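ESCALATION

Customer reports they have been waiting on this structure for their group meeting. Please prioritize. Original submission:
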Amino acid sequence: MPELTYLEMTHPSELRPSTSTFSGQVQLKPIDGNEVRTLTLAVGRDFAWPSQQWDTQQWDEYLGNPTMRHWAGVIDGAAVGLLSLNLRQAPDIEIDSFGLVPERIGHGIGGPFLTEAVTMTWGLPAQRVWLHTSSDDHPHALQNYLARGFRPFKRP
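Update from on-call: job pushed to the front of the queue and completed.
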């Protein structure tokens, strides 16, 4: 059974921007529909995300959820990752999904992408940004969240 770690930020000043040597710029591009599905499946493929097993009805419900917003992380016009936010309890905003496509892992992009994602989320506006990560996620996921200033608030 995977271990879940719940993390939060309660003020924008808690964000610690990435110091990665990655020299590019990660931009956020709003996406929907099939683009969300394609990126979710790519990002979660190696990490046992439940969405890997969804049927058409589950995808339709997820993509039709009015509280969800999705962005692709883009570098030089190519999608490198996914950010999905759940605004159900706004201004408490949940990072529902975040990650890189497999071929972009290990290139120093995760920190800058998360920095950009959290900066944008605070501007929605948010009063709290939170997420959970799993021991089944990429081994650097928790480290990246902690390095950006997220702190644990609950461990079931």
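Sent to customer with the following note: The mean pLDDT is 94.
Escalation resolved.
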